[in-house]
Amino acid sequence: MQLRLALLAAPLLLANTDPAPIPPAMKAMLDAAMASGNDGEVATVAKYARAAAPDAAPAITAAIDSWRKDRAAKREETLRNAGVFDLWHGRAELGGYLTTGNTQDTGLSGAIDLSRETLRWRHKIHLAADYKKSAGVVSREHYLAGYEPNFKFSPRGYVYGAAQFESDRFLGYTDRYSASLGAGYSAIKQPGVTLDLELGPAYRDTSFTDRTRESSVAARGSLDFDWKLTRTISVSQDASAYVQHYNSTVSSTTALNAKLIGPLAARFSYVVQYESMPPMGRVGTDTTSRASLAYSF
Fold this sequence. Notes:
By secondary structure, the chain is α+β, with helices and mostly antiparallel strands. The protein folds into two domains: about 70 residues; about 210 residues, Porin. It is built from four helices and twelve strands.
C-alpha cells in the first residue's frame, strides 16, 4: 500500500520540483553576453551553457526569453517616444588622390548616408559626389542626392516613395529629376543578412547636354542587399533600374567594408551606370572604382 502511494505521488513531486539554478560561472558569462546586446553572442553562450549544465537548461532558456522580451519592450518604448531629430544613424565617406610631377591629377569622391527607423517609418537620405581633374581638364563630375521614405504596413512589407536628383555631363545629362512610388518587400530579414526589393512606377525629367529635354513615365525597380560576413567585414550590393521608352538607366554599386578602429572603416566600391540611349558622342556605360575611409555615427 505504501509503495503504491509513493508511486502515485512521485509525478506530483517531480512536477513541483524547481529547475536547477544556473551555475554562478555560467550565469556571469550569460549576463556579460546579454549586457553586450549582441543576440548572436547570447545564443552562442547559451548553447554551450546548456550543453555543460543540462539540468539548468530550463533556467537558461527562461533567462534569455526574459532578456529578449525586456529588450524588445524597451526598444518599442524608445521608438514610440523618439523626437524628429532622434534615432538618426549614418556614414560619411571620403576618398581622393593628388599627383604632381610628370602628371597633375586630382580626384575626390565623397558620400553621406543617413537613416532613421521607427515602428512604422524608415527614412533614407543619400548624397554623393565624384570629381576628377587631369592636366587641368575636368574628366569626371557626378552629383547625386536622393531621399526615400518607407511606411511599414507589415513586418516585411512596406510602401516606398523615392525622389532623386542627378547631374553628370560626362554621361550626357546636366540635370535629371526622378520620382517614384511603389511597394517594397524585405525578402531576407536576419541579424546578419538583409535583402529589400522594390518595384513601382516612376516619372523622370532629363535635360541632356545636347540641349534636348525628355520627360516620361518609367518603371523603377531596386535591390538593396547587405551581408555581415564577420564582425569586421561586410559586403553590400545596391542596384536600381529605370526602364522607359526613350532612355533606360541601370546602376549598380558593389562594396566591401572593412572595419579599422572604432567607427572608422575602409570601403572599396565598384559602380556601374548604364544609359541605353546616350546623346551622340557619349558612351553608354560608365564605371567608377573607389577606395575611401568611412566614418559611422
